[in-house]
């Protein structure tokens, strides 16, 4: 009989005011990909942080290869064979890839305390090659690498310690669809080498593609572990949420106004060339393209984060938007794809974060209207089901998906006319996704105009009234309401001129 490489038993973890885990057991076998699922705040990351030495459990034991272990810190866990790739990357962007992999490692220091650079580069390149990252030059600084390459560096870093157990916490959340495949190749290679992998993700499709087993957590307790062939999408949702989840996408009837709220004329900068479109009042306009197609650039241009040529016309008047504050003054709001760089201020509380964009309206003379701020933050916490003991909780302590909800809440509360949403439900669980979609839909009905940029095709198709497809910085196709399916959308986004797709 095969023995588990890892056995966690009776694990509980309490934070002030939060019982994150209660009496959870979890087993892992060599060469298996084990999915860990559950709603936002269910305790997945906490369990994995305990397994990787970030936190110590309040109660419970961990056995690795039959022996009881305790991990003093993450390095200690790595030395004993457990490595983790966190939900948020932990790379130093101005160090090289090789330095990131072997940072602070005594084996790379030679005589007279000199770093053995060539040994480090060779070893790093070998590791990166072994997981299929041959095209990456490890002498490059990390900031020059794409997201998938950065992830390969994270994995290489984790593997540089002979890992028996590799934990991947939402590894695909930051990856575009076409790069997820490459990551799966890496995972399959590792599985074949006998590494046990814990795979945390909210994306159902991936779970069925890559996992051998799945364990579901709900409210800090383990619901069950099953073979992947024993479950269906519906039964998994039922296990995670504890009830049936209704329809994910609201039914959109196209009855927005004809009034044009925003007109982009011949916008050019960087990867985008002469992009023109109109956004009408109450419309949800999808903007779809593969990474580098220019969708992100356009969003940043409209929000004043970047400058370029062409004209932005709002309510019929040409305006200059050269900074986010000018954009905000024109009642444009932007939910960025990368919540950590641009979305939230982590040490501040939920309430403070939610109220930032509204401060001008929420202060009388120079005094803050605390009562209104409280009321508003309570409203959005409820609307978005942000899970926390109170709105005074620091955002740092929220689960990843709940942080994303704060970013969205913050911009919704600002009461904009035009809302640019980029990857709005990244890392958000199924139940909360349905909530967010409903809110987006309702806001559009109330007259908000929304530009939706997302790499999740079902989301773009399910929500948009029209979809514009960008390819290499140019709009190559427009789908009317109800016209697009995933296959066509992807085809237009990757080979716009094939099969009668000429303009
Ligand atoms: N350091 C901390 N201090 C206080 N509370 C915390 C801390 N870390 C996590 N929590 C709380 O513990 C609970 C479980 O969080 P965890 O991050 O494990 O959720 P998760 O399942 O990973 O969710 P997600 O899918 O959103 O990433 C949440 O209620 C969270 O707010
Ligand atoms: Mg998490």
Automatic annotation (TrEMBL):
Coiled-coil spans are none
Bilayer topology term: Peripheral membrane protein
Q: Which residues cross the membrane?
A: none
One Gene Ontology cellular component annotation held by this UniProt entry? plasma membrane
Task: Give the GO molecular function terms.
Answer: ATP binding; ATP hydrolysis activity
UniProt signal peptide:
none
Keyword field: ATP-binding, Cell membrane, Membrane, Nucleotide-binding, Repeat, Sugar transport, Translocase, Transport
Its localization reads: Cell membrane
Its recorded name reads Sugar ABC transporter ATP-binding protein
């Amino acid at each position: 009989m095969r023995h588990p490489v890892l056995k966690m038993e009776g694990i509980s973890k309490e934070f002030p005011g939060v019982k994150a885990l209660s009496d959870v057991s979890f087993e892992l076998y060599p060469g298996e990909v084990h999915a860990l699922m559950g709603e936002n705040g269910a305790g997945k990351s906490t369990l994995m942080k305990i397994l990787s030495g970030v936190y110590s459990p309040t109660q419970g034991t961990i056995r690795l290869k039959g022996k009881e272990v305790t991990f003093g810190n993450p390095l200690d866990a790595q030395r004993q064979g457990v490595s983790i790739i966190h939900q948020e990357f932990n790379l130093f962007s101005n160090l090289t890839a090789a330095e990131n992999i072997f940072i602070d490692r005594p084996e790379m220091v030679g005589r007279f305390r000199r770093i053995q650079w060539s040994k480090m580069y060779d070893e790093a390149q070998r590791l990166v090659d072994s997981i299929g990252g041959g095209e990456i030059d490890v002498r490059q600084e990390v900031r020059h690498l794409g997201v998938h390459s950065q992830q390969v560096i994270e994995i290489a870093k984790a593997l540089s310690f002979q890992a028996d157990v590799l934990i991947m916490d939402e590894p695909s959340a930051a990856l575009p669809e076409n790069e997820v495949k490459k990551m799966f190749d890496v995972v399959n290679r590792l599985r074949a080498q006998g590494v046990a992998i814990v795979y945390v993700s909210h994306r159902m499709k991936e779970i069925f593609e890559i996992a051998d087993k799945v364990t579901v957590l709900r409210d800090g307790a383990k619901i069950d572990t099953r073979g992947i062939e024993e479950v269906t999408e519906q039964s998994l949702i039922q296990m995670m949420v504890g009830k049936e989840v209704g329809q994910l996408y609201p039914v959109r009837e196209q009855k927005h106004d004809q009034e044009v709220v925003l007109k982009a004329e011949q916008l050019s900068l960087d990867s985008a060339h002469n992009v023109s479109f109109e956004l009408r009042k109450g419309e949800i306009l999808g903007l779809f393209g593969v990474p580098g197609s220019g969708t992100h650039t356009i969003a940043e241009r409209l929000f004043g984060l970047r400058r370029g040529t062409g004209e932005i016309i709002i309510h019929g008047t040409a305006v200059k938007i050269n900074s986010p504050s000018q954009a905000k003054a024109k009642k444009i709001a932007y939910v960025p794809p990368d919540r950590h760089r641009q979305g939230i201020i982590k040490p501040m509380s939920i309430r403070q974060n939610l109220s930032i964009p509204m401060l001008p309206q929420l202060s009388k003379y120079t005094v803050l209207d605390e009562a209104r701020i409280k009321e508003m933050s309570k409203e959005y916490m409820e609307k978005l089901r942000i899970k926390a003991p109170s709105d005074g909780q620091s955002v740092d302590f929220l689960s990843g998906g709940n942080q994303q909800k704060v970013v969205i809440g913050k911009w919704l509360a600002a009461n904009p006319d035009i809302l640019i949403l980029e990857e709005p439900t990244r890392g958000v669980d199924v139940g909360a996704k349905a909530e967010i979609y409903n809110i987006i839909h309702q806001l559009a009905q109330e007259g908000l105009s929304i530009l939706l940029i997302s790499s999740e095709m079902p989301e773009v198709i399910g929500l948009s009234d029209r979809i514009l497809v960008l390819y290499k910085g140019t709009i190559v196709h427009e789908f009317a309401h109800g016209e697009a399916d995933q296959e066509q959308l992807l085809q237009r986004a990757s080979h716009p001129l094939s099969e009668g797709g000429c303009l």
